[in-house]
Amino acid sequence: MNFATLLFLTKYSIAKRGAIRDFKQALKNQYLPPKDLASLNWEKTKKLIYYAYEHVPYYRNLFNEIGINPEDIREPKDFEKIPILRREDIIENYELFFSDEVKMEKMKTSTTGGSTGIPLKIAMSPQENREIKKWQMLQWWGLDPNVDMASLYRGVPVSGLKKIVLSIINWPQKVIRFDATNMHKENIKAFIAEVIQNKPKLIHGYVGAVDAVADYILEHNIKMPSPETIWLTAAPVTKIQEAKITKAFNAPVCDQYGCSELYFISAECTKKEGLHVFEDSIKLEFVDDYDQAVPKGEYGNIVFTNLEEYGFPLIRYMNGDRGRYLDRQCSCGMSLPLIDKVKGRVSDNIVLPRGEIISGEYLTTIFDDFTDAVKQFQVIQRVDSSIDINIVFSDKEQERHISNYVMNEFNERVQGQVPIRINAIKNIESINGKLKFIIREERTNNNVEKFNKKLDI
């Protein structure tokens, strides 16, 4: 650990006591034997359950209502006795999720619209330290916690004073910040210029925002300094996007999965054999549409528990995403379990008139063999059930071949039930730095219509 890193961590520990200790412990935990790691996870789970029953009104009421208490949760299988927590449960009972040992005004809050369009507000304890997982992930890529980085994210300070304060807080780390929700051409050019001038070792940002920058770099043949990695977050990463971004920056992609409710759930290491789950602090489950656990290797709805959040605990929370565990260990040597790349939201399915479902897991991989010829794609099911497939081609010579392939693939699955249209378009803009690949148009929802107006046809 060099002096600058030690200085950075020491300074951080003043604000959040025990940060260095917790970071060192996390690095040890990732190499625990799998049985020991599972035992640690279960001990933390039981501790949180007991605490929630004693101090959090929502869980005390819930347990009493269904007739169980913490003593009934003796082994991991018993954990499934606790009902799945859904977004509407939090919205309807927000104040009941606060521990009676915290002051509500001292808690940090976060709001997300998710796939429903309904804002969800949650709270987080100030002492809950997500930076530990960030440093841990960076260490997998050979980077120090204080690595200089360029970030395309939300909540970028606009005033000069805020920028100065933030630079003092980050020192000796240098962070270039741009707003991922405002990716017009001038912003993209300015971001590229900053990266060329400062040569940060890490690029970080929303998938859609970094994807837009990569497009500009490749279209204008700009020679970029190569960072150690590009850390992508906030949305699933397709093979097309990963290949494009890797080519533009001449660096590998690190796919990190999380959400507003829990930012660090899993992330890739340099072996890229799956995403490592931070199992020493998170309990992660995959369940079917009846809330039953699915076998390892099968896709299910993601359910998680943050084992370190006591002020506003979310136990068995279903966030609307889908994924699966991988039945293997990573060759990197860490025992942290692997999950596959998250394929998208539960709502990202196409439903045919006879009831058949074309899954989002399939739809997000249909262009995997054409990463050199396709820049972007989007599948939209209209109100009348017809399907529009919007494609931005980077290789016009392959346009007919790919269009025929995609049409044949879809025709096999829909079997004439609905019309299919393939549209070659110029661009698909992201919304707030995020690009939605699959959209089901609803009669009561005009969000899609607004989104489609951004298509440059």
UniProtKB/TrEMBL annotation:
<protein>
    <recommendedName>
        <fullName>Capsule biosynthesis protein CapK</fullName>
    </recommendedName>
</protein>
<dbReference type="InterPro" id="IPR042099">
    <property type="entry name" value="ANL_N_sf"/>
</dbReference>
<dbReference type="InterPro" id="IPR053158">
    <property type="entry name" value="CapK_Type1_Caps_Biosynth"/>
</dbReference>
